[in-house]
Amino acid sequence: MIHDIAIIGAGPAGAMAASKLDELGVDYILLDKAEFPRNKPCAGVLSPKIHSLVQIPEEVIDRKLVGYRVHGPPDAIVESKFPEPGCIVQRSIFDNYLIERLKTKPVINQASEIKDEGEHYLIKGRTEDIKARFIIGADGTGSIARKFIGSKSSKIAISAQYEFSLDEEKVSQRVGNWFEVFYLMEYGYGWLSPMKDGMKIGIGILADKKPDIWGMLDKFLDNSLIRPKIHQATLINKEAHSIPMSGPLDTLSSGRILLTGDAGGFVYPGTGEGIYYAMKSGQIAAELAYENLANQTNLDDEYNKRLEAAGLLSLRDADFIEKNLASPEHAERYIKKLKFLASRS
Question: What is the pTM (predicted TM-score) of this model?
Answer without folding.
Answer: 0.94
